[in-house]
Amino acid sequence: MSPLDFDILERPDFAMLRVRLAHGQQLFAEPAALAAMDPTIDLKAGFQGGVLGSVGRMFAGENLILNTYTAARGGGELLLAPGPAGDVVHYSLRGGSLLLQRGAYLANGVGVEVSAKWAGARGFFSGTGLILLRAQGAGELFFNAYGAVLELDVAGEYMVDTGYVVAFEDTLEYQVTTLPGLGLGGRAKSFFFGGEGLVVRFSGQGRVWVQTRAINPFLSWVYPYRPQKKRD
Amino acid sequence: MESEIVARPSASAAKLSLDSNETITCEVGAMIAMSTGFSVQTSASKRGGSGLWAGMKRMVAGENFFLNHFTATRPDQTLYLGPVLSGDIVHRRLAGETLIVQGSSWLASGPGVELDTTFQGLGNALFSGESMFWIRCSGHGDLFLNSFGAIYEVNVEESHVVDSGHIVAFDSSLQFSTGKLGDSWLQTFLSGEGLVCHFRGQGKLYCQSHSPPSFGKLLGPMLRAR
What we know:
The complex is a heterodimer of chains A (about 230) and B (about 230). Chain A is mainly beta and about 230 residues long. Chain A has 4 helices and 15 strands. In chain A, strands 3, 5, 6, 8, 9, 10, 11, 12, 13, 14 and 15 form an 11-stranded antiparallel sheet that branches. In chain A, strands 1-2-7-4 form a 4-stranded antiparallel sheet, with no helix packed on it. Chain B is globular, with a radius of gyration of 18 Å. The interface between A and B is large, with 46 and 41 residues.
């Protein structure tokens, strides 16, 4: 199996992933991500992880269907673009696993299995939905961010607002918690009035990828501009 | 405190390094990530104060009610702050002078910077239908401002006219008046321009390439009614 030939264009603000597939080579990607491709490539809307794996992805907020691109009629080029304006990160899995925030998954090569990992009630409580996908195996993985990506190498402890977590290595322990120092009243104030105060506390050794913009604050910003419902 | 603006200009974030007992105040929601040696206090205005009235005023103006104060409890702590919209961040160190900052452009400031959120100097900007409020920043210390799009500085020598949505901040040494662009209010209304600000005198003016209210008004009608 030949290695995946790829490059990431227009970094860091408007990153796109370009993959040159050799004859017969495959790539799996988030369905909405296709920007352009050579006609030598076949697109199959499929179920990489079987039906159960796909259902898991649906619950994790990812689309049910993962597209499979196969260079069936000779080599060809594929261009993938994430939804938000921002960076794309490449990560080589070598038997370990990586956890991805919902929506950060872009694509993976052969040998990587992407599946839903249920974050449980604590994920729901965060409000921003810390719902995670797990990528494991040996191969290439690509994920995207809204804004730029900060790579933080944690040795000890670090805290990241739940809405800004993109991905992290599975060697890290994680826990959803509140900001340190806030009393009960402060926590209530911060959480209910500001929507902040819930963070992921990482501990141990490993890398965390953090984005510099988040979707939910932007939605809150747009909200007042929505038209008012007409009252009869 | 040391600071660095990373990922400029469109996805910028402020990386702040604080030593023990150093404090930075920011809008609730601005924190992206941080090391664990911080104590966080939430208040309506100044640290330690209740300032409920000031908080209420901010809320009426569409801004966050609360401010977060991050105080390092151990040496060498790192804090990343970021704004909501795409754009740049500028760092300015105040040394006694006063800067008038558009509410949504204020990102963070040090404890030596006095924040007066009740400043009503441009209060009649509300007339244009654009909910805006202004913060008077004075004293000594670090101040971080964010822009929607690029940020550019204008050294006003005599006079300058800027649409209110494009103002980030300006030196209080500048005289300003709000006014209409055309000959009549009808013309101003039809031109689609918001309220413009006439600046006179000498001083620095920080402008942003894009206007948040214009973007909001572009998106709003495409969204479902609330």
